[in-house]
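User: Please fill in residues for this 406-position structure.
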């Protein structure tokens, strides 16, 4: 046996990273559909609308120009960085400069690079739960330690300053903040954002704030940008955003980071070795998206709002299910704790993961279990699919879970 053979084939750091649970559920649903099964997938956070025509047209034009066939600056096309500056002022009232912007290959790269740029091994990151499945893995890759702070359905999944302070230690370096939230659709009020920002400033904590769902708001909810509400936090805040959710551009892979110049420079150095520039055709499409009006965005928002009301009402008709009404994003996050341990078609699921498997196997509906986002006892359903699919899918779930008995 060679000396080499005793070493692990995959690095411990990468082996410790879990697969994206949401993408895994979506892939399983699509595979079953391809095999001819009538699966309805509520798994992926992906608008079912096509990218607006004017954005696609800009990409087609860009693809024909040789200048877009070449390398361009790592931090992004100057025109796109300027568009992000203008968009940030328009939508958030936040004044930034182009050298505070780094264009990334989708929001996930922005998440990874943000943690990689400010976290050292052993630094703790406060992570409100339920959380998006990628956050803890990105923290782990940066050498950080995730400290979960959980708020359940009775708090509308919103953590308090008191909870954050109770979880803080001398090792706390940063807080991940996401409003509107994935997976819950909950939105922090301006007063809550202010209180959290002032607490972070007082304690010397960085905030990485994910604003990817900023335009998907309902019932008069507002989602102000944290450094606008608490200006003194501007030097310790990194904003994450992108075109994916707002403009139905998940596959185009354009996101960005906004932050202090030294952090953005460091993240740019990392990206120069990691991926270099984002696809120029996608960047040109993003310019068209950000400089155009928001009419198409508002039209999509109207559909999401209608679907939100529909799916929430249908889920709350199921005995044992409690589904708060979300005021942002395109997810509902019902508690199914009242169903765990009950008999459903000869089985007694003890966890939401087991319940999600039962639902998929029995009625061919795919949802993501709460274990992907924190504690067990919950399911995430995306309502970024047609009204007909929502009615058909949730009707199947209603019938199945309505059979539950002690």
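Assistant: Residues filled in for all 406 positions:
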């Amino acid at each position: 046996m060679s000396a080499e053979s005793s070493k692990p084939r995959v690095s411990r750091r990468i082996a410790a990273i879990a697969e994206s649970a949401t993408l895994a559920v979506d892939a399983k649903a699509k595979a079953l559909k391809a095999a001819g099964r009538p699966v309805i997938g509520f798994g992926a956070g992906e608008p079912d609308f096509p990218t607006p025509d004017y954005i696609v047209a800009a990409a087609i034009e860009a693809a024909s120009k040789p200048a877009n066939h070449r390398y361009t600056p790592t931090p992004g096309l100057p025109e796109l960085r300027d568009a992000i500056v203008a968009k940030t002022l328009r939508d958030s009232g936040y004044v930034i400069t182009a050298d505070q912007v780094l264009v990334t290959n989708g929001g996930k790269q922005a998440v990874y690079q943000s943690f990689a740029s400010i976290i050292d091994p052993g630094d703790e990151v406060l992570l409100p739960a339920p959380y998006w499945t990628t956050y803890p893995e990105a923290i782990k890759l940066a050498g950080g330690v995730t400290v979960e702070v959980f708020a359940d359905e009775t708090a509308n999944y919103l953590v308090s300053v008191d909870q954050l302070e109770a979880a803080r230690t001398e090792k706390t370096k940063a807080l991940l903040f996401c409003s509107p939230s994935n997976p819950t659709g909950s939105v922090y009020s301006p007063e809550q954002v202010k209180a959290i920002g002032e607490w972070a400033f007082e304690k010397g904590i960085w905030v990485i704030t994910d604003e990817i769902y900023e335009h998907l708001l309902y019932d008069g909810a507002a989602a102000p940008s944290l450094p606008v509400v608490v200006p003194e936090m501007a030097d310790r805040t990194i904003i994450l955003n992108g075109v994916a959710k707002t403009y139905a551009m998940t596959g185009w892979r354009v996101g960005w980071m906004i932050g202090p110049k030294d952090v953005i420079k460091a993240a740019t150095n990392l990206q120069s070795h990691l991926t270099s520039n984002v696809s120029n055709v996608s960047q040109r499409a993003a310019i068209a998206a950000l400089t155009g009006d928001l009419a198409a965005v508002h039209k999509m928002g109207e559909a999401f709002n209608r679907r939100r009301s529909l799916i929430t009402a249908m889920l709350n008709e199921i005995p044992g299910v409690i589904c708060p009404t979300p005021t942002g994003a395109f997810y509902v996050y019902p508690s199914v704790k009242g169903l765990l341990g009950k008999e459903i078609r000869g089985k007694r699921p003890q966890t939401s993961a087991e319940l999600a498997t039962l639902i998929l196997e029995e009625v061919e509906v795919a949802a993501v279990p709460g274990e992907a986002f924190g504690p067990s006892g919950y399911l995430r359903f995306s309502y970024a699919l047609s009204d007909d699919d929502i009615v058909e899918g949730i009707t199947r779930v209603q019938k199945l879970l309505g059979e539950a008995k002690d």
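For context: The two ends are 57 Å apart (CA to CA).
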